[in-house]
Structures are given as C-alpha cells and as structure tokens.
Amino acid sequence: MPWKAVIGGSVGNLVEWYDWFVYSSFAVYFAAAFFPEGDDTAKLLNTAAIFAVGFFMRPLGGWLLGRYADRKGRKAALTLTVTLMSASALLIAIAPTYDAVGYFGALVLVVARLLQGLSVGGEYAASATYLTEATPRGRRGFASSFQYVSMTAGQLVGLGLQIVLQNMMSAEALNSYGWRIPFVVGAVGAAVVFYLRRSLLETEAYDEEERATTGAGRGTIKELLAHRKEALLVIALTMGGTVAYYTYTTYLTKYLSNTAGLAKETATLVSFCALFVFMCLQPLAGALSDRIGRRPLLITFGIGSMVGTVPLMTALGGVSGFAGGLVLSLAGLVLITGYTSINAVVKAELFPTNVRALGVALPYAIANALFGGTAEYVALWFKDAGVESGFFWYVSGCAAVSLVVYLTMRETRDAALSRAEQASGDAVTARV
C-alpha cells in the first residue's frame, strides 16, 4: 500500500470536509445571529438554504477543478481546492451578525458557501482519482475507502470540538461568539494541509497519460460526452447514496434535537459515537469489495435503504435517550456503508485517465446539488409543513432508483486504469 499517498490525500480531505460539515454542525448556534426573526425551525430553514447554495456551486467546481486535475495533474488540483476552502472558512469566522450590519452578514455566509461549494466540487474528484490511481489493482477499494474515513473524521473533529465547547462555554457564549471558533480552526488546518499536499507525488497513471498525449483533449466536455453513458451512470448511482448519507450525518443531529426532543448535547454525542463506528467500517467494506466486487455492496445498500429508511427514521423520531438514538443511528449508517466505502473507486474505474477527474467530478457534483445538498432543506420543509414522514419516503424512493442502476451496471473491480495495467492484464490473460 502506498501509505504516504493515502495519508496525504486523506488528511487534506479531512480538513476540506471538516470545514464543509462544521457549518451544519454549528448552525443551531449561529442561525439566530444572522436570521433573528421566526421560530427555531424557520431559522434553521434559512441556514439550511445557504447550506444548499454551496451544493449548487459544486457542478461549476467539478467542471473547473476536474478539468484542471485532468490537464495540470491531481496534485495541483488537491492543492488548489484546500486553498479555496481555507479562504471560505476564514470568511465565515469573521462574518458580521445581523445586529451589526443587518442581512449583509447572511450575504457573507452565502459567498463563503459558494467558495466552499467550488472547492468541494473539485476536491471529491481530485481525491477519489488520486487515491484510486495511486493504488495497485486489487487494493483500490480498501485505499479509496479512506476518502470517507477522512470525510467522516473531519465531521468527527467538528462534532468533537462542539462537545468540548458545549462543556467549556455557556449556551449564551456559544450563541454569541463561540460558534466562530471551529471556523478559525478550519482555516488554520487548511493552511497546514496546503504545505502537506505540495509534497505529494503525482500518480503514475497521470504521468503516463501526459507523456503519451498532447493534452488538448484532456478534461474537456467534448471528451466527457464521449463517455456520456458513464456520466449518467454516476448521477444515477449517486442519487440514493448522497440523500441517505446526508440524512444520517449532517441532518441527524438536528433531527434528534428538533424532532425527538433530545438535548443538543445528547444529540451531538449520539452523532459523534455513531460516526466513529461508521468511520471504522469503511476500510473493512472497501477491502471486502476488493474480494467480492463492488456491485454486491451497492446492491445491499440499495435494498437496505429502500426498505429500512422509513421504519428507522420513524423510530429515531421517538427516541428518548442516548442508547436508543445510538443503536438506531448506527443501523442507518451501517446500511449506507455499502455505498460510502466504494462509491469513489467505482466512479473512477468507469473513466479513462484523460477525463477521469472530470468524469467523476461533474456528474457527481450535479447529483449532489440536486439531491445531497437539498436533503436537509427538503427534510425541514416537510417538517414545517407538518408531514415529516414524507421525507422518509423521499429518501426511500431515491434509494430505489439507484438500486435499479446497481442491479444493471457492470462490475468495475478489475478495470485497468492505465496503459501499463492494461498491458499487464493482457499479458496475464495470454499466459492463461
């Protein structure tokens, strides 16, 4: 295993997603600072809408930074994405409140989220492509699973910091200025990772492609359209997974607090413990996919989410303590592990090197903008309308659509990601 490449890419991804998720984690504290009018659900709806805005920049970020990764290299794209994320975290940290400048503070939030969306739109593909290409065939599922290990670790760091602040600061202090602390931490962490990523080596697959071609067609929409079937496949297979992921991660704390009635501190602790176990499951599931293939895991997720979401979310809404919330949350996270642990490698294995980053980035970002980024807003909208259970059926329906794709798509585990791998595979076949 090329551990230096795996760790380097993962640590940067951790900071990226820490900054991305910490907005949602601390929204319960800063919502009133920018939207003082209305009830708690209305304030959360406003901050969730700004959260969703960031997702609609992800297709643009996927296009621009995916193209950049295919033309300038995976390492260059990874460095650029973390720079943008550092700037956006700093903007949120210094954003003025409604009492100081009216709704101008909310505008600063919107700008910061747009920058974050641009960054994350490219980060996912650059990281997925880098981790997949830097690992030999037969270990890619295991290596690429560290993308969601790092994503979850970033969220755990955010939740852990929230737990510390909740115990060290009063509720008044958190609502007043304490919520700014995690964004300062994120900005500093991204600056550190910038220097770390500069020391990474470029992948051999990309170096091979750069030597073999002039680069004129690399990372272009025209080249992506030549693989439009694979691009549509990425959108469809992402649909159910991204809705379920954001339901059981970013929305879970709010749901336990706002619907089940758990104390904010208890809801946060439930999320932290459940996500820690979820993080540890990712490499195990990724390694399993290297042995039995990607499709069995995806199909298991599709069936589980389609059938299990409604009863699980209904039961979660009625929990009264830590233990019940933890057990049910873990059940949901175990279900989506079949998707999260391998979705990055599956997408990367669908495309050739010259358009791999763009092929992963743009379709995935579109699916996230349409389904992942809006999940929390849709959930709160159903709650505000008095039909919260409608959201559970929405998640199940999205999973059902993706399940059809999982049942009909080709297996990608043995795909050759470079000419050298293709030649090696042909040689083995010839000997056999």
Automatic annotation (TrEMBL):
SUPFAM superfamilies named among the record's database cross-references: MFS general substrate transporter
Keywords assigned by UniProt, alphabetized: Cell membrane, Membrane, Symport, Transmembrane, Transmembrane helix, Transport
UniProt entry tagged with the keyword GTP-binding: no
Pfam families per record: MFS_1
Coiled-coil residue spans: none
Primary location recorded for the protein, binned into one broad class: membrane
Subcellular localization: Cell membrane
Positions of transmembrane segments: 20-38, 44-65, 77-95, 101-125, 146-165, 177-196, 231-248, 268-285, 297-316, 322-346, 358-379, 391-409
Claim: Nucleotide-binding is one of the keywords in the record: no
GO CC annotation, single: plasma membrane
Listed PROSITE patterns: MFS, SUGAR_TRANSPORT_1, SUGAR_TRANSPORT_2
Domain of life: Bacteria
Membrane topology: Multi-pass membrane protein
Gene Ontology MF terms in the entry: symporter activity
Domain Major facilitator superfamily (MFS) profile stretches: 5-414
Family: Belongs to the major facilitator superfamily. Metabolite:H+ Symporter (MHS) family (TC 2.A.1.6) family.
Chain's role: May be a proton symporter involved in the uptake of osmolytes such as proline and glycine betaine.
Name under which the protein is recorded: Putative proline/betaine transporter
Source organism per UniProt: Nonomuraea aridisoli
Lineage, top ranks: Bacteria, Bacillati, Actinomycetota, Actinomycetes, Streptosporangiales
